TrEMBL record:
Phylogenetic lineage: Bacteria, Bacillati, Actinomycetota, Actinomycetes, Micrococcales
Domain Prephenate/arogenate dehydrogenase positions: 16-293
Protein name: Prephenate dehydrogenase
Cited InterPro entries: 6-PGluconate_DH-like_C_sf, ACT-like_dom_sf, NAD(P)-bd_dom_sf, PDH_C, PDH_N, Preph/Arog_dehydrog, Prephen_DH
Enzyme Commission number(s) from the entry: 1.3.1.12
Pathway: Amino-acid biosynthesis
Domain of life: Bacteria
Keyword Amino-acid biosynthesis: yes
Gene3D superfamilies: 6-phosphogluconate dehydrogenase C-terminal like domain, NAD(P)-binding Rossmann-like Domain
Native species: Mycetocola manganoxydans
UniProt family annotation: Belongs to the prephenate/arogenate dehydrogenase family.
GO-annotated biological processes: tyrosine biosynthetic process
Keyword Hydrolase: no
Amino acid sequence: MNDIPERRPNAPRLTGQVRIVGAGLLGASIGLALQNQRIDVILADSSPAQLRLAVDYGAGRPEQPGDNPSIVVVSVPPDVTASVIEAELARFPGAVITDVASVKLEPFRALTDRGVDLTRYIGSHPLAGRERGGAISARADLFLGRPWVICRDDETPPDALALIEDLALDLGASPIEMTPEEHDRSVGLVSHVPQLVASILAKQLVSAPDSAVRLTGQGLRDTTRIASSAPELWVQILGSNAGPVVDVLDGIAADLAKVTDALRSPDAPGARRTLADTIAAGNTGVARLPGKHGQDRRYASIVVMVDDRPGQLGLLLTELGDIGVNMEDLRLEHSPGAQIGLAEIAVLPEVQQRTIEDLEARGWRIASV
């Protein structure tokens, strides 16, 4: 007879209290997701106003005497992450402490230099976020399908590691193990440098004439979307991960120099090949990006013209379901000066032609493929 109770489908893996220190975007989003699973979430924040707001949004409750969390999630700015981790380790000797800062090596080194026992500390980082911060922007589904990096070492107890993995899984994320060094090099490339590149590009719009800005299309919107992020936070993040970021920027600077030289003399021997090779290498890089469910595959695109009237987009999505097509991705763009929108739908290549024919038969206009 098996005395181990089976876990109900969709039941949370975590059973104890979870304390979250820092009720901003990530902290409040974690709280919302766990509260939806009826897990007791304790919120703490140095800002009473931020704490009250997160509580009002349903991300958890204020701390009370006698609280005994099994996990403490530290979600504070990078410059105070190590100090808060140290304080939480001392205050809750029975809890496993993790943090969700976007840099992992610096707090680990700071705590090690202070001689802090890190047996119960496991650094982690969900690769999820939004351009806007604060509890008001929090979402319970923020981590669904997103990677959640967990940085363990040889002394990490298996039961402590299991708790942090359960946390990530309960939030719908995909746990990935890395060393702090691997993590910081990786996010330097896929997160920190893109922020800088987007910001530098968006900066060019400050002095651009209105006539140019009015021509803005989806390409510029896509490449500058994250440029709305908070400068105060990013100064800390970039300063904490300067080495890996500089390495990537040096490579970008070298490539930009080659392209710039080619464009100064576009008719010079080899100039056009330099431009073509650069664009082609970009194609190869994009092809490596994981798609839906982490699959490394490319999708076919269908652009549908949608009248700018209430209910039209919902009708399109309904009819895609009626014809049995699974939409892999969706991007929307409004056509400037026209009462029409463009819905770019990503589908599997093998259903592209059938989807076009079925939509056209139902009266939809296809802009391009």
